[in-house]
Amino acid sequence: MKRSSPWRKLAEAEDAVNRAVAATRVGRYFKLEARKSSFTKELRAGAATFLTMAYIISVNAAILTDSGGPCTVSDCTPVVVGNSTAVPGPECTVGSNPGYEQCLGRTKSDLIVATAVAAMAGSFAMGALANLPLGLAPGMGANAYFAYNMVGFHGSGSIPYGTALAGVMVEGIVFFILSAVGLRSRLARMIPRNIRLATAVGIGLFLAFTGLQAHQGVGLVGASPSTLVTLTACSETDPATGACLGGSMRSPTFWLGAVGFLITATCLARDVKGGMIYGIVFVTVVSWIRGTAVTVFPDTAAGNAGFDYFKKVVDFHTITTTAGRLSFGGLRHGNALLAVFTLLYVDVLATTGTMYSMAEYGGFTDGAGGGFDGEYRAFLVDAGSTVLSAALGSTTVTTYVESTAGIREGGRTGVTAITVAACFLASLFFGPVLTSVPPWAVGPSLVLVGAMMMRVAKDIEWADMKEAIPAFVTMALMPLTFSIANGIIAGLGVYIALHCYDWARIAYLKASKVLDERRNQVAASSAGEASGITATTATAAAADEIPDEFGQGIILCLEKEMGTGSG
């Protein structure tokens, strides 16, 4: 009993704190008692949510850094040729040019701060304004589309970084307006359900494929001149072709990443809270050891500079290169407008769908109309957070499914989301640590996020080929063309083509029904007029055979009854 006494006192103190907070204006505002929650329970829920989504800080920054950010050829170190220096060409952005690598390092530091600030602001607003236990951060899927489809690897795409950021901001503004006028949920319902489900599956496959590649993953798959892709995991690669030098499956970093994959997968399988981050932490810590084959700090100029920055551990970094890099002029081009539409489409589907599912999971829905408490403000918050994120240099902000971890812990109010925001605020002071997370630590999490997104595939109507074929085209083309936009456009196109006959037939039947009704109305009206004239004539003839004093009265009565008379 003595051993349990301290725990009893701790529990009593916790109950006292919970009762005190619930009785304050803050407790009443957040409806702690009404939602059968408590202050300390909300704090634990917020910590659980943050642990499950903290990976996004390094993962989002790493993915967006692959776009090159604001780095260009002008940042490359001049090439020494004999006794003179030459201006490097575009090839310097795909090699190991020291100047370009340093620019990428600055960009990654900026994007870590941008990710944390966007997540902090979005989560705080969600808790304070909408009073919902939902964590927000730049979304997976949209960031990959931004980095690899819009801007392209190290700026190799058709849209410059500044123009792409402007597109994200425009999409956020449009999304905010749609939310403000109430069109957001209606637009989400207009998209065929099976296409919506297939889009989530396709994005999952896209993320998994990204995590298996070398630049942003474990390097298990790579290019092949004969089969397009093949098994790699090379210890060395040809910088020009990407082909293995010395055989495949010999990369030490791949095997370390595979161990991290198994750690994270085991944690997820056993429902360990924060399981997504444990594999990343293990692989990252091992990769920090210098002098090994898996170190992220090799004995090079870039490696030494990275290690010097890493040793600071605590450092508040100020954004210097990515914030405010908006260029709206390029949005006039068709490919930029298509990208904005794609981002808006994904936002309407993913963000709105996730928020509804989280509200359903937490028991916030009203049951009748499918809405939930705080819905309108929640929609405004995540749309507004996207505008802020674009201004900082990052991508669209969305509600995270990892919020279920906090809801599972008992989080029912906005205090959970505010706790998540406080944790993201603390992460701003550990930039040197977060920038040193290697891609082979991040890749396994991308694969597992893709695996988790596969769960909705079972809800697709595979027995109906008119629904199954467009869904399959949508999910297959996203990874195979390495474009989320291509999958969406192809899926919708096939869906329309397969349903054109049905829609035309329905339209024809409706038009025929309307015409038949009009024809029947005209025929009935003509028949009524003809019967009225006949009845009046017959009545007059009959009146001639009866006395005059009764004739006029009978005629007037009959005419009035049939509506053919004047009075």
UniProtKB/TrEMBL annotation:
Keyword Transport: yes
Subcellular location: Membrane
Subcellular location, principal: membrane
Pfam families registered for this protein in UniProt: Xan_ur_permease
Molecular function GO labels: purine nucleobase transmembrane transporter activity
GO BP: adenine transport; guanine transport
A cellular component term, taken from the record's GO annotations: plasma membrane
Transmembrane segments: 111-130, 159-183, 195-214, 252-269, 336-359, 379-401, 413-434, 469-498
Membrane topology summary: Multi-pass membrane protein
Superkingdom of source: Eukaryota
Keywords: Membrane, Transmembrane, Transmembrane helix, Transport
Record bears the keyword Ubl conjugation: no
PANTHER family reported in the protein's UniProt record: ADENINE_GUANINE PERMEASE AZG2, XANTHINE/URACIL PERMEASE C887.17-RELATED
Family, as annotated: Belongs to the nucleobase:cation symporter-2 (NCS2) (TC 2.A.40) family. Azg-like subfamily.
Name listed for the protein in its UniProt record: Adenine/guanine permease AZG2
Taxonomy of the source species: Eukaryota, Viridiplantae, Streptophyta, Embryophyta, Tracheophyta
